[in-house]
Amino acid sequence: xxxxxxxxxxxxxxxxxxxxxxxxxxxxxxxxxxxxxxxxxxxxxxxxxxxxxxxxxxxxxxxxxxxxxxxxxxxxxxxxxxxxxxxxxxxxxxxxxxxxxxxxxxxxxxxxxxxxxxxxxxxxxxxxxxxxxxxxxxxxxxxxxxxxxxxxxxxxxxxxxxxxxxxxxxxxxxxxxxxxxxxxxxxxxxxxxxxxxxxxxxxxxxxxxxxxxxxxxxxxxxxxxxxxxxxxxxxxxxxxxxxxxxxxxxxxxxxxxxxxxxxxxxxxxxxxxxxxxxxxxxxxxxxxxxxxxxxxxxxxxxxxxxxxxxxxxxxxx
Amino acid sequence: xxxxxxxxxxxxxxxxxxxxxxxxxxxxxxxxxxxxxxxxxxxxxxxxxxxxxxxxxxxxxxxxxxxxxxxxxxxxxxxxxxxxxxxxxxxxxxxxxxxxxxxxxxxxxxxxxxxxxxxxxxxxxxxxxxxxxxxxxxxxxxxxxxxxxxxxxxxxxxxxxxxxxxxxxxxxxxxxxxxxxxxxxxxxxxxxxxxxxxxxxxxxxxxxxxxxxxxxxxxxxxxxxxxxxxxxxxxxxxxxxxxxxxxxxxxxxxxxxxxxxxxxxxxxxxxxxxxxxxxxxxxxxxxxxxxxxxxxxxxxxxxxxxxxxxxxxxxxx
Lengths: 317, 317
Description:
The structure is a homodimer. The first copy, chain A, has helices at residues 4-15, 55-72, 88-91, 95-109, 161-170, 181-191, 199-204, 217-228, 252-261, 274-277; strands spanning 25-28, 33-43, 76-87, 113-122, 127-137, 152-155, 209-212, 231-235, 268-272, 286-292, 298-302, 305-308. Chain A is an alpha+beta fold. Chain A is globular and about 55 Å long. The termini of chain A are close together. The interface between A and B is large, with 60 and 59 residues.
């Protein structure tokens, strides 16, 4: 079946929609500033389950996923809109207020103004569309398309934690004050993710291309390489895996697959030139490989062998 | 049950969200311009039925409902984002492409750039969130809150046509080339509405307050009066009713209720001072009453008797 990525590429080509396809659209604001703007849908029973989360966690996550897109452009988030469609049975409970409390708490912490949105009714499932706008100095938004052969490839944090949290939820664990510390860490990475705080700094330090890790490293690296017309070689041993995953008693291969394909870590994947790589020394980032000129070929060095790396992250269709 | 309007008023007060509650949020863009931005959800089986419409009509309507909000601020629409969640059974058909064709056709006609959005999967129902941004000269967005006692109250066109189209759909009529002309007019007002082209001109001519007629005249007038802290008296005999409704063989009272409470006409309701009312002479607008100082009291003169006018338009909850 055609993926949503194919659909988007198709309408982009067919109608000449040059601004779509990055983490955010970049639009002129004033003589010094561009606006970066994003929208993200979260759908009940596709992107979350109500019995796995709390209204406050979900409200916070709704904002966080869009903030992650702003971070991936190197933008400072400024304002947000929230559209949500609520079934009647949920409307009658305290759900909408608690959900909005969670959404508002994160917006307040990060000084993002909530400016509008829409409230609707749905027949059955909760649906959320989160819209956030941010600012970047004119012409300096970090696109997916700026990676060049020879650039180093980096990630901002350990990976696989959100996917491991999902495994715990699927096994029946729920968040409560009594669960162990490693379980709490993993569940919160899934239920209450925070956007990376490094987006703006990485832009200033010269990131050439950037994308947020929402679908999963293997897929998001493929998106970045496709947009840049390049290839990539990464090294398995360099990919940082969330340590708390060891609580799951998974094999090394299983842990590795969570980090590679799991998605929703909301860390940043970015590239910098060799010349600028040393600027990153003091940041909590990890080099995982380098960009090659071999457009579309994405490979992973695993136990001394270079293998093709298929994009196996999340897709809707 | 608490309405969505109550929920919005509550979070507005509780969190001090000064920019929410109008047709669009107004945000500073540059030294001469403000940005006006809106989001509108359309949910299958709440706001539309797939068996009543076509993918192209629906795509166009998704954009039109948001353009109507931009018009209500006196704004020029500039760019748009579309989030849509599609069930797998619909994704496999040609639906997404035809829907986007309809959306794109209207955007192209009105020179609005499509800049982004999101594509998601849903378990069962189609959901759409339409986001549009426009521009107004700084400080000149026409708010709901600017009406003053003595201002004249006007509407931009005949009312009730979209609601009458809904009646025909409920009776089993479907759009086809062979239906009669009056039926076609009414169905298209429901299925393929167009935003009023008068928003910018009315701003320039001095509209003091404006709102689009999406919920229905009785409700939208109540919203405008609440935001302005005023009351209103309108006159039944002056309310323009879509002429084609006569095809329905409704009584005068039935026709009148469609015009008063029907919603989705996407005409504009606005106010102007007495001094500026004469400027409107050449426009296709109709004076229906005047603003009073009696905050919250909305009355209608009907057959020589002044009666309270309850807000009886569309509400989700």
